[in-house]
Structure formats: structure tokens, C-alpha cells
Amino acid sequence: MSIVQSALERMKNRGQDRPQPLQESADTRVTTPRAAIRSLVWPQTQYATVDLSVNRLQQGGLYPGEENILKQQEDYRAIRHEVVTAMRTARASGDTIGPVVVITSAMPGDGKSYTALNLALSLASEGTRDVLLVDGDTTRASLTHALGVQGQPGLLELLGSGRQNFLDYTAATSREHLRFLPAGVRTSDSADLFSSDRIGALIDAMKTTLQGHAVVFDTPPILASSETQSLVEAAGQVLLIVRANVTLQDSAREAASRIPESVPVGIVLNAWEPNSPSERKAYQLYGEYGKQPSK
User: Fold this and answer.
1) Which domain holds residue 264?
2) What does DSSP say about strands 214-218 and 178-181: parallel, antiparallel, or unpaired?
3) DSSP character at residue 162
4) What is the pLDDT of residues 82-93, one digit of tens each?
5) Which one-letter DSSP state was computed for residue 253?
6) Distance between CA atoms of 186 and 157, rounded to whole angstroms?
7) What are phi and psi of 185, to 5 degrees?
8) Which CATH number do you get for residue 192?
9) How many structural domains is the chain composed of?
10) Does residue 218 sit in helix, strand or coil?
11) How many whole angstroms from its chain centre is CA 103?
12) Does residue 32 fall inside a structural domain?
């Protein structure tokens, strides 16, 4: 993937419990100062620290080449801004959207795992909140394999236990403020663990424990797996990844229709390439501007 050109366009604008529009006015924002975000004490676990170095991520196809890093970082700052604003946005019911962001797509190959990781990195880079990245795509477990923690207990074991604290299954990473919850080891009955009751209880625990922080869930494509349905129904917000020139419009519409009307949804347009001369020039100028020395 090279470009994330557009972030969080409002996709659905219906439902009686839909959140207020994303804006900076005081009536739709939680007024608690950022300094008041409760710090977290993560438990010591037996897991090794997950390597999130640039070289490791590039080798796994999870980070751009040197020539595109600056542009991608700016793209993800734009996504981050909308996601964080949404977290503090009030619902019609009076509570806030909260910390849980579910990343999905219509079909495989749209770049959802890439987006989940890089959004988590961007959120953590602010340094004002802790971020938990969860590999919820337990079928392919792309993030778990790419980060070298396959075979380690994770989300599946947590859901199977029914009682244990999700913090105990997380691993520290080499990036400050970022923790990782791997997919776990899949068995023949793993799909049954994704019941609404189990997922709802886990998401509620995350909302309570990580309020003011962020949880980013990578999930299976919503049209390819029933496991995603419980996750999007319990989510605070959903990002639907659409790959330019690949994702069919009918598939995107069908994917959006499976997300409850009360859950705010945004689109990330992935792998967009500038076509017009003006777009190409603007893209080139951005890279040149980013290399200018400060005075």
C-alpha cells in the first residue's frame, strides 16, 4: 500500500441513536482536560517485547518505503484527528463513543491490517494516551504472524477463559504507549467464541479500563466472516477500508449495511494514486515541502 488519501468520510447518516456531527463545539465534546486522562499500569507478562522497528515493519509489508513515509504519516494524522474527535463525541443517549475502533473491509486484500497497525502507531506517537492494538482477525492472524508472536496466547484464549483480565494477555512493544494483543491459537471451535455476550463483555471491560485511551481492532472482512458482526455491533466506531480500483461499490454498500445504524462509520480510501496533473503536482510538492530545512 502506498497512499491513504481520504479518511473518515461520513458513510451513513441515519438511526435515532446516531452521534452528533464531528465538530469542535463544546456541546459535543467531553470537557475533561487531556492531562486528566488516567494513566495505566500495564501488568508484567512473560511475553517478549514485540519489535515494531521500521525495518521489521517494512519487511513485513506493514510500512511504506522511505520515499513515502512523510506523506503517509500526514495521512494518518488526519485519520487520527477524526478518530480521536469521535471518541470524545457525545451520543444521543448521553454517553460518549469511547475508545474502541474496529477496522474492517468488505473483502480480503483491501489493507485493513495495514491500516489498523499504522493508525495504532499514529495514535501512540502523540504520547498523550496508551493504545492497545488487537489482532481480532483470528483466521488469518496477519498482524500476529507479521510481528512474530504466533503461538502466543491471545484474544482466543481470553474469550475462552470467560473471566481473566484482558490486560494479562497483552505484550509490550518497542513503541512507547503501544501494546499488542495477538490473535491466539485457533482451534476447530474458535468461531463459537465470538458470541455477542462474550464480545460485549470484553468490549465493555475495555471501554471501562481504557477510557481516555484507545483500542484498535483488526477484524476479518465483514463479508467473509461472521465473527466480525459481533465486534462491529459492540464497537464505538468502525472504519471501513476501501481499496481504490479494487473494492466493488456493491461490496462496499453491502459491508456498510451490516454495520448497525447506531455505530458511526467512516471510510478510509486505500491505495489511491493521483491521476490528474494537478493532483500529481500537489503530491510532489508535498514531498519537497517536507524536506525543506527549518529556519
Assistant:
1) 4-10+43-290
2) unpaired
3) S
4) 999 999 888 777
5) H
6) 9
7) -105, 120
8) 3.40.50.300
9) 1
10) strand
11) 5
12) no
